[in-house]
Design a protein that fits this description.
Blueprint (H helix, E strand, L loop, with lengths): L2 E6 L6 H14 L4 E5 L5 H6 L8 E2 L6 E5 L9 H14 L7 H4 L4 H14 L6 E5 L12 H19 L1 H7 L2 H25 L4 E7 L3 H16 L4 E9 L6 H20 L4 E6 L8 H12 L11 E2 L5 E2 L3 E4 L2 E5 L8 E6 L2 E6 L2 E5 L11 E5 L2 E5 L4
Parallel strand pairs: 1-5, 1-6, 2-4, 2-5, 6-7, 7-8
Antiparallel strand pairs: 3-4, 9-10, 11-12, 12-17, 13-14, 14-15, 16-17
Helix pairs in contact: 1-11, 3-8, 6-7, 6-8, 9-10
Bound molecules: adenosine-5'-triphosphate and magnesium ion (MG).
Length: about 375
């Protein structure tokens, strides 16, 4: 499983700049990186100077880096049509005393985005996925969804009993059961996403902010709400620090900023803080991004093997797959044997992870029956027969 690095913060503070720089730095170090953006303004494309689409596309000039812009339309997972289908008669039903606003699940969009992200995360072909989140301020509202769904489901099912009561008397209560099942399936899916996001072996969250009082206050609040869900927040970038120039105005700003940084450091003592100065121009294009990556992480060294490798901001990354001789190692934190499957098709080995199959790269064709598979310490080792 790939490592997931999330960058979040208020609008315009530098999320795209820091996440894109990190992705470029990691790819330059030899990792296979997918940069995912959920920003409808396409700023990730602008920052890199390439057009990204809804499927991973290779970024020119950075071997190993692929980009993807989550398309809001494609977020609708398999569960949603079924869910709305089941709810349809209720939502339009005149007798429903549940108003429309109660029907809207807060954070449903984000839940869908993360569900889509999960598909890539589970693909062992990626080493690191860098996620440039949208500037909503409620990016992770959906974390509370499972509890909301639980409360909500009871209401809906009660409603369903009332409106569907007569039909149920005639035809049985199959529909109610189906609805309950769909809601529960969706709730479990979100719980799964939450488990992944809370696993520090998979996910790390970096806050991005600016050295202004409002920015700092908002960041401390964001940290607290993320910590409530036990999300592994490890670093914070304080971007746009005023450079040290001889001018009274500049020096006054710097004094104020130093005070705000002090507040931040005292409020969040466990975070790796990193200051980045305001540059004399926007940060666009690969050279500028590489220079920011260097400021944030220094030279990123990845040696042989799965890792982990430490980079700046208290972040750690892992390879998704490591091929060595007759053995392929897959990094699969949090996985249990029951969620894994193995089969082959035309000489290609397919590893199933949580019901989704991924081809495993290997130097020559092999059959599943010839492969020796062993899951140990979160690593799946596939040993291929000697020729
Ligand atoms: N340290 C810096 N010095 C100069 N310009 C910067 C710096 N950091 C970011 N910028 C510029 O500021 C603008 C906003 O940065 P960026 O797009 O990274 O913010 P964002 O948090 O992703 O914004 P949004 O919330 O709109 O997605 C960009 O034009 C970027 O090039
Ligand atoms: Mg952005």
């Amino acid at each position: 499983m790939a490592r997931l690095l999330l960058f979040g913060g208020k609008g315009g503070v530098g999320k795209t700049t820091t996440s894109t720089s990190t992705a470029v730095g990691l790819a330059d170090a030899g990792l296979k990186v997918l940069l995912v953006s959920s920003d409808p303004a396409h700023s990730t494309s602008d920052s890199l100077g390439v057009q990204l689409g809804s499927e991973p596309s290779e970024v020119e000039g950075v071997p190993g880096l692929w980009g993807l812009e989550l398309d809001p339309e494609s977020r609708i997972s398999d569960h949603i049509p079924k869910l709305t289908e089941s709810l349809g008669p209720l939502m339009g039903g005149e007798s429903a005393d549940l108003n429309a606003s109660e029907m809207i699940l807060p954070g449903l969009d984000e839940a869908m985005a993360f569900d889509e992200l999960l598909k890539h995360l589970e693909n062992p072909g990626w080493d690191v996925i860098v996620f440039d989140t949208a500037p909503t301020g409620h990016t992770l509202r959906f974390l509370a969804l499972p509890e909301i769904i639980e409360k909500w489901a009871d209401k809906i099912i009660k409603m369903h009993r009332v409106t569907g009561g007569i039909r149920a008397m005639m035809f049985g209560s199959k529909e109610g059961d189906k609805l309950k099942e769909e809601l529960d399936k969706f709730r479990r899916r979100v719980l799964h996403v939450r488990r992944i996001l809370c696993n520090p072996e998979v996910t790390r969250f970096t806050l991005v902010t600016i050295p202004e009082k409002m920015g700092v206050n908002e960041t401390v609040r964001a940290y607290k709400s993320l910590a409530e869900f036990e999300l592994p927040v490890t670093g914070c970038v304080i971007n746009r620090m005023t450079p040290d120039l001889e001018h009274e105005f500049i020096q006054t700003r710097r004094t104020n900023e130093a005070g705000n940084v002090k507040t931040l450091t005292e409020s969040l003592p466990n975070l790796h803080l990193h200051e980045v100065e305001l540059k004399d121009s926007d940060i666009h294009g690969l050279d500028a991004l590489r220079s920011i990556s260097n400021e944030l992480h220094g030279k990123i060294n990845v040696s042989e093997g799965l890792g982990p490798f430490t980079i700046g901001l208290g972040l750690e990354v892992h390879r998704g797959t490591w091929l060595q001789g007759d053995e392929v190692q897959l990094h699969l934190p949090g996985i249990v044997r029951e969620d894994l499957s193995l089969r082959s098709e035309d000489g290609t080995i397919l590893v199933g992870i949580n019901g989704r199959e991924h081809p495993v790269e290997f130097t020559r064709p092999a059959k599943a029956s010839q492969v020796n598979a062993k899951l140990e310490d979160e690593v799946l080792r596939l040993t291929f027969p000697a020729e």
